[in-house]
Amino acid sequence: MTRERLIIFDTTLRDGEQSPGASMTRDEKLRIARALEKLRVDVIEAGFAISSPGDFEAVKAIAEVIKDSTVCSLSRAVRPDIERAAEALKKANSARIHTFIATSPIHMQYKLQMSPDEVVSQAVSAVKLARTFVSDVEFSLEDASRSEFDFMCRIIDAVIAAGAGTINLPDTVGYAEPQQFGAMVGSLIENVANADKAIFSVHCHNDLGLAVANSLTAVLNGARQVECTVNGLGERAGNASLEEIVMAVRTRKDRFPVETRIDPGHIVPASRLVSSITGFPVQPNKAIVGANAFAHESGIHQDGVLKHRETYEIMRAQDVGWGANRLVLGKLSGRAAFASRLEELGITFDSKEEMNLAFSRFKELADKKREIYDEDLQALVSEVQMAEASEKYALSRMEVLSRTGQAPHAELTLRISGREQAVQSDGDGPVDAVFKAIEKLAHSQTNLQLYSVNAVTEGTEAQGEVTVRLEKGGRIVNGQGADTDVLVASARAYLNALNLLESPNRLHPQMGGV
Ligand code: KIV
Ligand code: ZN
User: Fold this and answer.
1) Region 373-398: what's the mean pLDDT?
2) Is ligand 1 within 6 A of the CB of residue 9?
3) Do 124 and 237 belong together in one domain?
4) CA of 18 to the centre of ligand 2 (A)
5) Given ligand 1 and candidates 142, 166, 228, which is best to mutate, with the most ligand atoms within 8 Å of its CB?
6) Is 29 a domain residue?
7) How many domains does the chain have?
8) 3-class state of residue 341 by DSSP
9) Does 284 fall in a domain?
10) Is the CB of 166 under 6 A from ligand 1?
11) Which residue of 24, 175, 254, 386 has the fewest C-beta atoms within 10 A of its own C-beta?
12) Domain enclosing residue 301, as ranges
């Protein structure tokens, strides 16, 4: 069977970031982009450049450092978006502008309030304009799965003639089912006269849990690019999960006539990095990257695997990067060893001060924890980069008293806009006491939507990584903190969430008219 290339277009940094609470800083996005480049992703959608100055800077920084993947920015089909995307991508080794407009009757009538003719004409102008900046232009028909077939043929033909090299068919609202979606993709490829001049792509959302199935059926019907995200992160129920798509076509070579250039050995480290940066934990039974994905509980299974691995295992854990978190450093490791491991992880610092702070945090951690793994370093760097960002709230000191039969009591000293203030509170539990004390000073009027703790590595001495989700006026943020003391991690996570709420909100690409 001759195999065609399946292009893996990763949108963790754009659609993934549209998950409520998953917004990332420029440095965090850079770290993920480096992990995606290591994975050998073909295209990294780095962001939506016009959405905020922060996103523009992130796309620009990623375009400057990534050499082995194409770097892409999203833009609506309007001049300011396209110009901003082009500006951010200027220094990219290989750049793509991804422009889109909705094509379904419901979106055209109610959201855009435009006629189909106007939509075609705007799409064509957008593609032509984008082509004046880059040779690689992708056009998406937003809500394709609910669009009329003949209209899709018409607009696709027109944008290919205008210079679009990739045509993306999103199942924007996660409405499609595999047979129908696959047939739609196949028929479009067959019926659009100039279809051979473009690569057809799909972008599926997981509202019905069908994003991966829909994407794979599209591949069987001729799609040669899949848009996906690490851990299936993304708007609402998420996007098709990169690791599932990649491992499905790799494991079932008998069914899929394609191959990707992904190096699967970097899948698990990339998954952990995305989870740690966004604060979205990976469920234990998640395919490929969940903690239980390769764990055999039942005696019968264990017996079978020990006798002959293939009895119950269709993939090898080490092939997707399980066990890659090798023990790196300990108490006696010096600055050179620390710096060199960070470099291998693709972590760089903007200043010497930041590096010094990271090294002293590492020494503090090494005093509490004998073995330091890559995940510990990732969590530590996140903390340092957060601390270096101009923050309103920071933790200076805390003490928590928790005795059986007595209300837990927390005493904290916070630095608020540079000024130290002490505060104390009782609570229903120690975490509650800490949060109540913070709120006595912050008066944030937020709703606590989620509190979760995850061990960064194994063992009781592991760092606890805490995620705190706060909501205010419809805006949701996820704060994070890591420490061997989960109460300290909790306080830091809460303060981080408050700091995130202080940062300006971003423009959402799919809101309102273009
Ligand atoms: O889901 C969607 O339709 C999108 C487009 C902007 C590609 O994310
Ligand atoms: Zn999407």
Assistant:
1) 81
2) no
3) yes
4) 9
5) 142
6) yes
7) 4
8) helix
9) no
10) no
11) 254
12) 294-322
